[in-house]
Write a structure and sequence with these properties.
Layout lengths: L9 E6 L2 H9 L8 E4 L7 E4 L1 H4 L9 H7 L4 E3 L3 H16 L5 E5 L2 E5 L10 H16 L3 E6 L2 H7 L8 E3 L5 H7 L10 H9 L5 H5 L3 H8 L1 H9 L16 E12 L2 H22 L3 E10 L4 E12 L2 H12 L8 E11 L20
Helix pairs in contact: 4-5, 10-11, 12-13
């Protein structure tokens, strides 16, 4: 017998190729062309690609060199994060016309709980259509949406009819939808886990459902319990309007590898200064300082130290990362340095309210 599924109406909105679409909107000569945001320098990494570029296999997180190789006509555009943030705020304002239960995941996507909404509209499907239309009217950009009973299914569904489309998975459709779903389409199942699943004979949700919780925990640890639940439509995570960050960090990739410890210290001093600005703007402090080092051979190290008090001062952060830097000798020249602060003074559930579960008559 299947577990009773929680009765919520969740929408996941995902902007279509957001950074690239903003650039094409602001620069009409780029419309319809293969563009990549970022990735223009010898060491650059693509932050986003237009749909025209994606046809050639250009994706975010690949190197600019590889992107150019795959698409010789590719146009590189310098990122303008202030502009993306500005438009993201306009999109957020649209969401708030419908519900205060908005959980942003990044500048270009968010979860909305519209179980009870400001428009009094019982249809989450119609609300999603309205929101997408409103975003287009306000920004000139298109968005895709997934609509279902929980965040996990809504997130998976939003990829179905991209770009500029939406998919609703009603309560009655949830279990068949999940059973038919390829395991590589499950949100949170990456390439490595997908391969491991395949080796265990798990290719679809239906295959996953045949495995016991014990079996999945044995092979995937804590994540196994999550897989056991989500394939049964169980994912009780609420939409959290004030998502609390677990860490705040700043990092830089260098155009030339750093070999001198003097230069490395200078870069860390600059990074600590930038991080202090972010922390003070958000009124956040933390106890655990982490130094991230990526070497020229692409291997990566992190070194951390937890202090007995909260800090957000650049001098204290710099002195701590300097200590971490000299814990052991650097094994190669350095291509990336980062500093992050965790164990934050925001890590508290004080005042957090649990949503009350309500049995509702559903009209998706």
């Amino acid at each position: 017998m299947e577990t009773q599924l929680p009765q919520r109406k969740i929408i996941h909105i995902d902007m279509d190729a957001f950074y690239a679409s903003v650039e094409q909107k602001d620069n009409p000569e780029l419309k319809g062309k293969a563009i990549a945001v970022g990735g223009g320098s010898a060491r650059g990494v693509v932050a986003a690609a237009s749909y025209e570029a994606r046809k050639f296999g250009v994706r975010s997180a690949i190197s600019g060199y590889l992107a150019q190789k795959r698409c010789p006509e590719l146009i590189f555009v310098k990122p303008r994060f202030e502009r993306y943030r500005e438009i993201s705020q306009q999109i957020r304002a649209v969401f708030l016309e419908y519900t205060d239960l908005v959980e942003p995941l990044s500048l270009d996507e968010a979860y909305l709980d519209v179980t009870q909404n400001k428009k009094g509209n019982p249809s989450a499907t119609m609300i999603a259509q309205e929101i997408r239309q409103r975003i287009f009217e306000v920004t000139g950009l298109t968005a895709s949406a997934g609509i279902s009973i929980n965040k996990f299914i809504a997130k998976v569904a939003s990829d179905y009819n991209k770009p500029n489309g939406q998919k609703t998975v009603t309560p009655d459709e949830v279990l068949p939808f999940l059973e038919d779903l390829g395991i590589n389409k499950f949100h949170g199942v990456g390439k490595v886990t997908t391969q491991k699943m395949y080796q265990l004979g798990i290719f679809t949700g239906a295959d996953l459902k045949t495995k016991t919780e014990e079996f999945l925990v044995q092979h995937f640890g804590k994540a196994g319990r999550h897989y056991y639940n989500v394939v049964r439509g169980i994912h009780n995570s609420e939409v959290k309007p004030n998502r609390i960050p677990k860490s705040v960090g700043t990092e830089h990739t260098f155009t030339e590898n750093l070999v001198s410890e003097i230069f490395i210290e200078e870069q860390l001093k600059t990074t600590a200064e930038q991080l202090e600005g972010r922390l003070k703007k958000k009124k956040i402090s933390g106890k655990t300082v982490t130094l991230k080092i990526k070497y020229s051979d692409f291997t990566q190290q992190t070194r951390s130290k937890t202090l007995p008090y909260f800090i957000n001062d650049k001098h204290l952060m710099f002195e701590t990362v300097k200590e971490l830097l000299y814990q052991e000798r650097l094994k190669e020249s350095v291509r990336l340095l980062g500093i992050s602060l965790s164990n934050l003074n925001t890590d508290t559930t004080k005042g957090e309210q649990k949503a009350v579960a309500v049995q509702l008559q559903f009209d998706f």
